[in-house]
Design a protein that fits this description.
348 residues, alpha/beta, six-stranded mixed beta sheet, 14 helices, 14 strands
């Protein structure tokens, strides 16, 4: 008679661990783990039930089941009540399982998204506020095909400070945005495929009188003597860092620090802030048409000569792994056609 399968598997092989899992542990479902994690975040079965769209009794039943399982497996329940109206108390075992549950569920979702991305049923694109227009034009070229094939198209707003992490971590498949680079240098390093469509330097928008800032141009070094409205982070902060170093706020006169360019424009128009704001030339032209603010060109006279590059980015080599009719490749080609018509394309 042949030996049972577990005896045929060396104990140091991963299969042995899989075969030795206690039945009670195998009965623990992903749904139960998700419920446990939601209870930990909300503090109660009632709040968790509201988020999950269930009855409180259903959530409590899952908690009771998990408590019995882990009491039997390791001698400690996961969670207990502290009193009416008070948050649940999680034991060390419960805290550990919540952390592991969140990791497992996140990894499984990553695998699902990766599979859907690979076979072309979903595509996630990130764009900054000022590059949304190029994506919109390219979208018109592929929208009908994406709709016909049922491709789930996701669009996310990406700020410059989150630009590379979004792409590197696989949270987006393609990015449209602008980066700061030395004049004439490539827009990114070798980890990305890049489709450029425009290069240029920023300008100043100002409400200062001509006697304080004559124009029509000013050297970059003059910024050290002008009151500035600056963002906390992002593209313009990158320019200032390149020109004046990471501690540029200590070297410049900051009239106001903003998180949103529209708020900065409102400050200058209202004259609650007196000074200048560094913006893209495209935005400056649009804003200056109203007549309340002037545009002053910036002339490079500092050692670090940098420019803004507007481009499309994907992870290096990823498009080559997909078929030509994959959604990522279709959108890339649409963007290539659009940049050829509206910009100055440079493909690397």
């Amino acid at each position: 008679m042949s030996a049972p399968l577990p005896e045929l598997v060396p104990p140091d092989e991963p299969l042995a661990l899989l075969l030795s899992c206690p039945p009670a542990l195998l009965d623990t479902s992903l749904d139960q783990l998700r419920t446990l994690a939601v209870v930990r975040r909300t503090g109660s079965a009632l709040q968790a039930a509201r988020l999950l769209g269930r009855e409180q009794s259903s959530v409590q039943k899952q908690l009771d089941s998990l408590n019995r399982t882990y009491q039997a497996l390791c001698g400690e329940v996961l969670v207990s009540k502290r009193g009416r109206g008070k948050d649940f108390v999680f034991t060390p075992t419960g805290e550990s399982l919540v952390e592991r549950a969140q990791e497992v569920l996140a990894e499984l979702m990553d695998d699902v998204h990766a599979g859907r991305r690979r076979i072309g049923t979903t595509l996630t694109v990130g764009t900054t506020e000022f590059t949304l227009w190029i994506l919109s034009r390219a979208w018109d070229r592929v929208a009908a095909e994406f709709t016909r094939r049922g491709v789930e198209f996701r669009l996310v707003h990406v700020r410059t400070k989150d630009f590379w992490p979004r792409l590197d971590e696989g949270r987006v498949d393609l990015l449209c945005g602008s980066v700061v680079t030395p004049v004439g240098a490539p827009a990114a390093h070798d980890a990305y495929d890049v489709l450029e469509w425009r290069r240029g330097s920023p300008v100043l928008l100002t409400n200062l009188p001509h006697e304080d800032l004559p124009g029509p141009s000013a050297p970059v070094s003059a910024l050290a003597k002008l009151p500035l409205v600056v963002p906390g982070s992002g593209l313009i902060a990158d320019f200032l860092t390149r020109w004046f170093g990471p501690a540029f706020r200590e070297r410049l006169t900051i009239a106001a620090e903003i998180e949103d360019v529209q708020y900065g424009l409102a400050l200058l128009r209202s004259r609650l802030a007196r000074g200048c704001m560094i913006v893209t030339r495209t935005l400056a032209r649009r804003v200056a048409e109203g007549g309340s603010l002037r545009v002053v060109d910036l002339v490079h006279d500092v050692e670090s000569k940098v420019e803004m590059v507007s481009a499309v980015f994907t992870r290096k080599g990823e498009r080559e792994r997909y078929a030509p009719d994959h959604p990522l490749n279709l959108l890339w080609e649409a963007l290539r056609e659009e940049t050829a018509e509206t910009g100055h394309p440079s493909v690397r």
